[in-house]
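Researcher: Let's try something more involved. This one mixes different molecule types, so please make sure each is placed in the same coordinate frame as the others.
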Amino acid sequence: MIRVEGIETSYGEVNILRDVSLEVGEEEVVAVIGCNGAGKTTLLRTIAGLLRPRKGRILYEGMRLDRLPAHKIARLGIVYVPAERELFPQMTVRENLELGAYATIASKAVGEQLKIVFDLFPRLKERQRQFAGTLSGGEQQMVAISRGLMSKPKLLVLDEPSTGLAPLLVTEMYRQLHQLREEGLTILLAEQQVAMALSLAYRAYVLENGQITHHGNSRDLLKDPELKKAYLGIA
Amino acid sequence: MIAVLFDGIVYGLQLSLLAVGLTLIFGLGGVLNLAHGQFAVIAAIFTWLLMGKGVVAPVAAGLGILIAGVVGLIIDRLLLLPAYRLKGDSRLLLALMLTLGLAFVIEGGITYRFPQAELSLLLPIPMIKVLGVVIRTASLVVALGSILVLLSLLLFLKRTGLGKAIRSIIQNEEGAELCGIDPARMRTLIFIFGSLIAGLVGITQGLSASLGPQAGFELTIFALIVAVVGGVRSINGTLAAGILLGVVHAFTSYFVGAYMTYIILLATAIFTVLIRPSGLFGRWT
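Model: All components are placed in one shared frame. Result:
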């Protein structure tokens, strides 16, 4: 469905990503794992069109994405949910969600999408009239993911859905993500919580210092002694 | 006294209209348009020219406002393009220089070509008695018209999908982009919109007072003060600030003299910034 081929992205003079390639198939869930600063966010921002790669290309159903601005990529159905959430703080939860559908979905279909995300996160239904800026971190993360889901995305690109959440909430969030996976949504996610990510994803790539060092099935990666030591804290 | 108060409110409403445009363009484009008042002048002078050629006033005024909008489109798409390529402070600074230059060019050009131009529209019924007070019909029309425009603008921004999309960019541009909203397109739309409203103010100024080629800078400066007092990103605050400063303006002009009004208006602005840096209401819209 989406193929990243040898991209290099830099901030000014510094190269953050070096020759990164990866692939996500239809209805697949793929994780990118790695430490803080490994380049995970840069990779996802490049896919979302918020950063331009200096080299390489990104193909989505045969079409080049790496030259398109972010809003066009979003309209193609590739929806990026950043770790910072980037909500509209002075608008209600409901308005935030409606804006997620604004550019992509016929206004008649918005009610139906709202019902779907309220079923997934009943908490948001209770909070729909509240300003997004007044919500707790966990609730804001729910709004961010739901806003992404409002446009019926073909590919959901999630950056660290566990950021800033209490452990209990992380487990809860992942339960919802598992449900989305069962419904057949294609997901690419970056995560530091390696065990959580690998339980959700079929396949994973390990990013270290801007390069892919390992990739394979989640099950095999979980057994890899080197990775166990580095990311799971198990000797 | 009531007449002075009323005049102040009428003038203040027009400043609100100008300042709302300034505020929206700043919120969406990160650009302070120092030529904003010149769009009022453009509309007024074109209306004056067309009326000189025998076009009836309402049609001439409509065309004048339209021309202000067209000039706005051209400025956004051509003159400001180099500024839009930059981000943050460098964009703001380059745009300040570009729009300041534009303001000089427009004022100089119009003053040179039409030194005698002056739009002054007269209504068939000059005076009317409301609640025992005799006021100018034109002022009443301008006040009601301005309130109508401001209220529809507020409703548009708060209630419609397009209005919410515009506010979403002001609150979080990246978030809006991730929703598939094109900030550049919305910015152009708002620039045209702001120019049209400024054009309208040119006409209402012609109705309630008169407007010549050199009025642009004063309008821009007053609108800037109103925008600062109201909070550069708050629409409601801008409305309130416009009326407040309009009234202050009317009373100081009446009791002290025109030269003092600048100082007092600026003092009001400085005072507000010192006690409430984010404006009267201190909240983003």
